[in-house]
Design a protein that fits this description.
Shape: globular
Bound molecules: pantoate
Strand order of the largest sheet: 1-4-3-2-5-6
Strand content: 15-25%
Distance between the termini: 42 Å
Helix content: 25-40%
Largest sheet: 6 strands, parallel
Number of strands: 9
Order of helices and strands: EHEHEHHEHHHEHEHHHEEE
Radius of gyration: 19 Å
Low-confidence stretches: none
Number of helices: 11
Length: about 280
């Protein structure tokens, strides 16, 4: 695996692959890689000739300085995992390399970015659009892989891709959430859980899974209340929001029959001081 530190090196690697008629699978990450990220790399490896993984903690998507400061940096371990997974290139640039000047672009991301994470973390999705659009422009991927744990992020990235003209037919590939045996969704933030909070955290997925049963004979409103009360009853958990939304538009559904696309329950829950997100599909 080759480590690329500059934008020019990334462009050259992507260009060479494209000129040789090869498909490029791109996995954007912020490092601190876990089995969830590696499942994206595995899939990219299966579906493409060349696999590029970016490892970059993007400052413009953090609206909380403390969150950015404490975000884990584990470059050596990340590279080892990527080598094992068979990535061809790891793009690991500095902040100055990505943003030699401030990125002042404001993306029109519409309704998909206005709710849930977009409402709670002002500027977050604009920052995601800033970095991901640059990576797509330089890396010229055929396919890009994203985990469904960040369910809303996928809808936002699709919107950005559409607005920017499609990046030469780029396909966005959503990949299923990878969980610990006890159900906790893998996240780089999990390492910050205290041992006691780590025991409470799997309860998030348990409550969501239980609510799928509950929803069979209850309304959307009742189901939201059910999840919120179940979670808040645990002294270590505090729900920031639980929304049941159209999985394409991210707009709240008011009854189960609202949309032919189904419904997705999206939760953000504080477990101690750590903000965790998870989601579940209702049929
Ligand atoms: O999901 C993430 O880790 C980040 O938001 C992403 C897509 C790598 C952009 O920095």
């Amino acid at each position: 695996m080759e480590i690329l530190r500059t934008v020019d090196a990334l462009k050259a690697a992507a260009q060479a692959a494209r000129e040789a008629g090869k498909t490029v699978g791109f996995v954007p990450t912020m490092g601190a890689l876990h089995a969830g990220h590696i499942s994206l790399v595995d899939r990219a490896r299966r579906e493409n000739d060349v696999v590029i993984v970016s490892v970059f903690v993007n400052p413009t998507q953090f609206n909380n300085a403390e969150d950015l400061r404490t975000y884990p940096h584990t470059e050596e371990a990340d590279c080892e995992k990527l080598r094992k997974a068979g990535a061809d290139y790891a793009f690991i640039p500095s902040v100055e390399e990505i943003y030699p000047e401030e990125d002042t672009r404001v993306f029109d991301l519409g309704e998909v970015a206005a709710v849930m994470e977009g409402a709670m973390r002002p500027g977050h999705f604009n920052g995601v659009a800033q970095i991901v659009s640059r990576l797509f422009e330089w890396g010229q991927p055929t396919r890009a892989y994203f985990g469904e744990k960040d369910f809303q992020q996928i809808a936002v990235i699709r919107r950005m891709v559409e607005n920017e003209g499609g990046f030469n037919g780029l396909e966005i590939v959503p990949c299923p959430i990878v969980r610990e045996e006890d159900g906790l969704a893998l996240s780089s933030r999990n390492v910050r859980l205290t041992p006691e909070d780590r025991k409470a955290a799997p309860f998030i997925h348990k409550a969501l899974a239980k609510s799928v049963e509950y929803a069979r004979d209850h309304s959307v409103e009742d189901t939201i209340r059910f999840v919120t009360e179940e979670l808040n009853a645990n002294p270590r958990l505090r729900v920031e929001y639980y929304s049941i939304v159209n999985p394409l538009t991210m707009q709240p559904v008011t009854s189960w029959g609202d949309t032919r696309d189904g419904a997705q329950g999206c939760a953000t829950v504080y477990c101690g001081d750590v903000r965790l997100i998870d989601n579940i599909k209702y049929n």
